[in-house]
Amino acid sequence: MPAVMSMWPHLSDSWPAALMVPGLMLAAGVALSLDIANPWRSSGVRTSAAGLLAGLVGGGVGTAAAGAGILAVGGILLLCGLLGARAFGRSLRRYDSTHRRREHLRGHGTRSIAVVDALSWEQAYQEDDPIFTITATMRTNRGLRTVTGDLCAPRDLAPIVGGTVIVSHDGTTDDPTGIDCLFASDPHSPRDPDALRTYPPRPEGSPS
Fold this sequence. Notes:
alpha+beta; single chain; 5 strands; flat; 4 helices
């Protein structure tokens, strides 16, 4: 009885690898090149399709590999694709809720002048503007309230201890997003005369 030749390729065949490797490279490239836009822009969050595309590519490659008879590799790739799509969905919901919270405070929050008690800078930038962590005290209907948060400001508008910032808040202290207030530069605040020397421009090639 003549041997029945399998129509499926063996692991030693080259074309399944030629199919999988470009797919994996595409998925990794998309995931690296697309990202969540920064939350500091007033235009809000521009969500990327990195996770979704990586999931689709992983699922497609996994299905193709499984159809080619490489069940173990195909199953793993398909599982990775599905998990990536699930993680992307969670990330999308998290960033969307964060964006809506920021927009609510910008549009409907109470704006108060707060005195800067302390500030720190960890050499972090958003585009070319440094990001400061500020602790400030403001007067509310319930008395004095101390808040801590981040402020992204141009170097020449850098905050200074003893100066003031504008805080948008709504009285919430335990919002699920972790955002209880927003900081903005106060145009009438004293300025740090050494700011341009203290906070240098963002180095070329550094992440923002």
